[in-house]
Fold:
Amino acid sequence: MMTRTGRLAAVTWILASSFLVQARGEKAPASEQVRALAVLQAGAADRDPDTRRQVALALSLSRVSPVVNALVEALVKDSDSLVRQAALDTVGELGDRKLAAPARAAVLNRSRRDQALLITALFKRARAR
Structure:
């Protein structure tokens, strides 16, 4: 079983390596992608909200895929507001229209603050284009 520090270190490593690989325009080896997804999936289900927030941040640097979308959808519905905020930022960063409906549905039953976060994330993405 991984400690909290170990989980955060693993997610941070994935975040950093993903950023470097994408910055160089390269594609990570398949074995690294499988390991990264396994760590991210475990982190998204972790009981520690800091770990789940780190996963949401890491996903913002990934490419859109069904697995990534499923993780982001789950994190948008998280019980912790900081995790939801990070996940909504990720929705904006990824810019996948398939994530708009789940994000909207997850936020409608939440506070006005969460609704404002969704609007901010979507406007951030629109301005970046």
